[in-house]
Design a protein that fits this description.
10 strands, 12 helices, eight-stranded mixed beta sheet, about 15% strand, two-stranded antiparallel sheet
Amino acid sequence: MWKTSAEESLAREIFRKSKDAIDVEAIKDVRENSKKATKVRIEVPWGHIAGKWWGPQNVRPILCIHGWQDNLGTFETLIPLLPQEFAYLAIDLPGHGFSSPIPHGMNYSAYDFVWLIKRIQEIYEWEKISILAHSLGAILSFVYAGLFPEKVEFVIALDALKPKIMPDLIDHVRGLISNVTIEDERNQRPNNEPPSYTFDELIEKLHIGTYKSISPEYCPYILSRGVRKSTRYPEKYFFNRDGRLKSFTHLLIGQESCLLLARNIKNTPYMYIRAEQSIVKLWEEEKYLMEVVEEMKKVNSNFHYCPVNGGHHVHLTNPTTISGIITDFIRKYSKASAALKAKL
């Protein structure tokens, strides 16, 4: 799970000091949940993908993919509530958490992250892949399922469904190119460090930065894999995600292509859980999302649209809201359980 023993010590310190600062029982829970998972390191050409594996080792796991600038800590409260006869492999995307960043001189692209799903499927030699994904991870999964429906067993999408439509596309791309140049140069400066903060400040930054989607008591789940200790200022820490992610190249796909992808997912069981109080509703005009929802309802009898009460990180801050419907979905559509029962 951790790249080094120093990072493991830092993660433990995050939990200890965060509990001192805000006194939450959630910190105890995450320690216990982490003990039940196995550290995973997936070798890739630019380094490695860090992950955690919950559940039996003799069954194909459900791949869990987090959102933009989060890490696999986002699933720490949900996975323990899901059926324990199944396995779950949560990963940190490149440049997030404890996974390797991409090489200098390059930028992050959602297209490469879609390719990463295929790469992981091929590394493990899975004939089919099952996915539980949040936000950006859910969008990546929609594209992957639309491109390779024959390779996907099912998808559970948490509070995102499709690539958003950007009416100001030219200005958007111009800004990305300009900003990534600045971040890439910063990354290559000797002894460069991003701004550093105290634990209380880290919690406040994450809470506000997610539009209060992650309440303070749940911030340590993300921070445990999301910060490094400053070498300049004792008792301060900085976010370890790659600065180039702020200029991340999103999936620049038009609405007609989104509808075509939706039509391709006609035989794949698919659950879209939409948080009713989520900031995601402001991403794009409502009509674009609902057109895809209606198209998937029309072509796919196994498409489930599930609005729930909660914010963008409801799966982290109030997982019991959705754990039941996810459990029912997995047990209904996963064939991995049958294979497991045959082996037991």
